[in-house]
Amino acid sequence: MATTHSTRMLIIGSGPAGLSAAIYGARAGMRPIVVQGLQPGGQLTITTDVENYPGFRDVIQGPWLMQEMQAQAEHVGTRMMWDTITEVSMDGSPFRAIGDSGDVYEGDVLVIATGAQAKWLGVPGEQDYSGKGVSACATCDGFFYRGKKVVVIGGGNTAVEEALYLTNHSPDVTLIHRRDSLRAEKILQDRLFAHPNVKVLWNKAVESFTGEGGGLLRAVNLVDTVTGEKSAVETDGAFVAIGHAPATELFKDKLQLDESGYIVVQPGTPKTAIPGVFACGDVMDHTYRQAVTAAGTGCMAALDAERFLAELDFERAQVAEVG
Ligand code: NDP
C-alpha cells in the first residue's frame, strides 16, 4: 500500500548537491527526506579517481566519496528513500511528489538536486575506454594527462574552455569539430586560435575510439563530414564535450528553464520563482559543474530553506492566533 512520507525538507536527488543540502538541513532540525533517484550518488558514482575534492591529500574514489556523504547525511538525521520521483506538484507549500513506488512525499520546502548528465557520442569504444582515456570532464581528469596528447570533441563553449584548460597540462591539444565553424563565444574562439599548443580539425565526426583491447585509449577514428574520407588521430586522452542534459523533465511546465533546459534561479541564490522551491547543483549550473560547487549550492539551498521555513512558521502562527 502506498505510504505518505512528510518532512519539512524534501530533497530530490542524491549527488553532492542533494546530500550537502541534507547534511545542513538535518543539522538545522529539518529531518530531510532525500529521494535518491535512478542513479543514487549521482555522476560521481560513475567516475573513478577524484583528486580535486578538498580535504583529501590522496586520490579518492568517486563512489566512496558519495557513500561517505550519504553516511554523513544519515548520521545527522536524513532519511534516504530508494525511489524515483515521477510526478511533482508545486502549487504551494507543502509540495508533493509521487515516486515510482507509488509512495507520496510531502515537504514544506522542496530542494531540487536532480543533476545533469554529460551527453555522449554513442559510438563504438566510447564506453569501453571511459575512464581509460575517454572522459567528459577536463577539469576532473585533465591532470592525469600531464605532458600527453589529448583531443577534445565539440564546438561549443564547453569544448573550447576544456581545450584551453587542457593546455595547462598538455603541450598537444586537438579540438575536433563536425562543422567548419564553432558555436563558442568569439572571445573564447580568439583565445583558442591564438594558442600555440592547440590545433583544430574541422568537419570531422568521430566514428569510434580504439585502444589496446580493453587497456588504454590509443586513437580516435574520424570521418570527414564533407568528403567522407577516413582518418585517425593518435591520442592518450579524448574529452567528449558535446553538451550536458539537465534532469529537468519533471519541472518543465512548472519552473522557468533556460534555453538549454537548466532551472533558472535568482542570480547568486538557489531560489526559483516559486517561494519554498530551491534548485542546486548541476541542474541549475551549466558553468562550473564541479562536485564542490554542487555541494556549495546544496548548502546554500538548505540555509535559504531554513530562512523560508522560519518565515512560514511565523506566518502560520499568526494565522492560528487570529483564528
Ligand atoms: P552546446 O550545446 O553549446 O555545444 C555542443 C557542441 O557539441 C556543439 O558544437 C555541437 O555541434 C557539438 N555536438 C553536439 N552533438 C554532437 C555529436 N553527436 N557529435 C559531434 N558534435 C556534437 O554545449 P556546451 O556544453 O558547450 O554549452 C552548453 C551551454 O552552456 C551553452 O549555452 C553555453 O554557452 C553554456 N556554457 C557557458 C560557459 C561560460 O559562459 N563560460 C561555459 C560552458 C558552457 P554543432 O555546433 O555542430 O551543433
TrEMBL record:
Domain FAD/NAD(P)-binding: 8-298
Keyword Disulfide bond: yes
NCBIfam families on file: TRX_reduct
PROSITE patterns, per the entry: PYRIDINE_REDOX_2
Family designation: Belongs to the class-II pyridine nucleotide-disulfide oxidoreductase family.
Enzyme Commission number, as recorded: 1.8.1.9
SUPFAM superfamilies: FAD/NAD(P)-binding domain
Cofactor note: Binds 1 FAD per subunit.
Catalytic activity: [thioredoxin]-dithiol + NADP(+) = [thioredoxin]-disulfide + NADPH + H(+)
Pfam families cross-referenced by the UniProt entry: Pyr_redox_2
Protein name: Thioredoxin reductase
Keywords: Disulfide bond, FAD, Flavoprotein, NADP, Oxidoreductase, Redox-active center
GO terms assigned for molecular function: thioredoxin-disulfide reductase (NADPH) activity
Assembly description: Homodimer.
CC cofactor: FAD
Gene3D superfamilies in UniProt: FAD/NAD(P)-binding domain
Signal peptide per UniProt: none
